[in-house]
Amino acid sequence: MATVKVYSTLTCPWCKVTKDYLRSRNIPFEDIDVGLNRAAAQEMIEISGQYGVPVITIDGEVVVGFDRAKIDRLLAHSA
Length: 79
Fold this sequence. Notes:
Layout: E1 4-8, H1 13-24, E2 30-33, H2 38-48, E3 55-58, E4 61-64, H3 68-78
Parallel strand pairs: 1-2
Antiparallel strand pairs: 1-3, 3-4
């Protein structure tokens, strides 16, 4: 099973879409609220170069935004 992290905020609509999609596929993930956790926000910026959310990591591979095709490809690769 892949190790999945979603860097998100409570007010981000694409974060909700991302998490709902992962739940619909029964993919467990760690939800990291970068709005509440400054250290996690800095970590997200370091790994992705992005200030916007969502940023998803799947087994260490970075996905910026809700890129369903890339998410599916990485999840299939880790299965």
